[in-house]
């Protein structure tokens, strides 16, 4: 059992973990991203690659320049979930004046708190804001280059557990300020379960895994609005089954003031801490293929930076931030970069 804020809007009725996570992060009144996130970076609950160094923005700008050559008719750049706006700022600066003035820039942000921080960061830049991606895509006739960094890891997941013979789903019930887990039959359909590689390979021993049900639903919700361009996904995770190597309890965890929280601690401080899980890139690529997108070869972050940054070898030796982001045994290996391209209509 774990303690919980008695002022939460949750009821004592059992709900799937995915719904609990959605409310903890995105509830309009009490959700972490909706109301309680203070800042991203050293003084916040967690840091992102974009808050550590400007080199990521420089590399994404080079990625954009390369993609523009492949789709010259696309003139809109969209960032989804841009934190405080520092990554978009660095991308725009790295593009240079002449290339920047030929492009249209958009931010998709559902958090009112983060949107205000983005507007402050980008107040001298010509950027438009939208609440969701379908609306942004409608404004540019579905032709856009899309990028997001550490976005999908915050989407609610369905938490499942194997007993060695079958899969069960984790539900939560609140009673007297405490949350307890229950194991129930899977709530997703057979058709939906085919989307997730974790369910198609049952381990012989008990193990927990996360299904990116919300991320899968999100991608499918706007895919029909995207006609041309490329999307860059930067996030921590791996392909299956490597994603669960030596992780019998799965990858779910929380962060509060840079402190890593696991197990029952994830259920504490609901709405006041970040909750995350590694991205299953096997499922992400499968989803893209089913939507008619073309997947480029998956890279780790070091390979992405090395391919897009000029003078990488020399800079790697002299820039401690770049050395950290490109460390094969650290962030450079843990983070992956996936480019997916929309097929022309």
List descriptors.
disordered N terminus; single chain; alpha/beta; nine-stranded mixed sheet; six-stranded antiparallel sheet; 18 strands; 345 residues; 34% helix
Low-confidence stretches: 1-12
What does the radius of gyration come to? 20 Å
How large is the share of residues in beta strands?
Answer: 15-25%
What is the count of DSSP helices, taking H or I runs of 4+ residues?
Answer: 15
Mean pLDDT: 90
First-last Cα distance: 53 Å
Largest sheet: 9 strands, mixed
Q: Structural class of the helices, strands and pairings?
A: alpha/beta
Number of strand elements = 18
- In helices, the fraction of residues equals 25-40%
* Broad shape: globular
Describe the protein.
The structure is a single chain. With 345 residues, this protein is α/β, with parallel strands linked by helices. It is 34% helix and 24% strand. It is built from 15 helices and 18 strands. It has helices spanning 17-26, 32-36, 49-52, 55-70, 86-95, 97-101, 112-121, 133-139, 190-193, 213-222, 281-290, 301-308, 312-318, 320-325, 331-334, and strands at 2-3, 15-16, 76-80, 104-108, 127-130, 145-149, 158-162, 167-175, 178-184, 207-211, 229-238, 253-256, 259-261, 274-276, 279-280, 294-295, 299-300, 335-342. A hairpin with a 2-residue loop joins strand 12 (253-256) and strand 13 (259-261). It is globular. 42% of the residues are buried.
